[in-house]
Amino acid sequence: MLSRIHLLPATRANGSIAELRSGIGIPSTIVWNSDDSRFYFADTLKDKIWSYEYDSSAGSISQEQPFFCGFDRGLRDCSAVDAEGFLWNCR
Fold first, then answer.
1. How many domains does the chain contain in total?
2. 42 near 89, Cβ under 8 Å?
3. Could you tell me if residue 71 is inside a domain?
């Protein structure tokens, strides 16, 4: 069964739930940068981290682009963004 990312009603003005992405194997690395303008997401099965522009007022993501892929050791898991804005990923 594939997963999806949803935006919860608390973040949307009209209270609706929005599906932001579907077709996800094992979701991990759900993290924002320090000013909430960039959203990072990974699918462990696809072994890729994506980066998105995040609009907190609209509760939407856009401009999907690969952020990190093709690393031979381990699979992507949880991540964190440090005080300098760097994304750290556990493998």
1. 1
2. yes
3. yes
pLDDT < 70 regions, the chain: 1-18, 73-77
DSSP-assigned letters across all residues of 20-53: EEEEESSEEEEEE-TTSSEEEEEETTTTEEEEEE
User: What does each C-alpha distance from 25 to 36, 40, 57 come to in angstroms?
Assistant: 25, 16, 28
Cα 21 to the center of its chain, rounded Å = 10
Give the number of other CB atoms < 10 A from CB of residue 52. Answer: 20
Nearby residues of 86 by Cβ (< 8 Å), 6 or more positions away: none
Q: Tell me which residue range forms the domain holding 56.
A: 26-89
Q: Name the residue among 72, 70, 71, 90 with its Cα closest to residue 80.
A: 90
For residue 12, tell me if it sits in a domain: no
- Residues contacting 73, CB < 8 A, separation 6+: 91
- The verdict on residue 43 lying in a domain is yes
Note the pLDDT of residue 63. Answer: 92
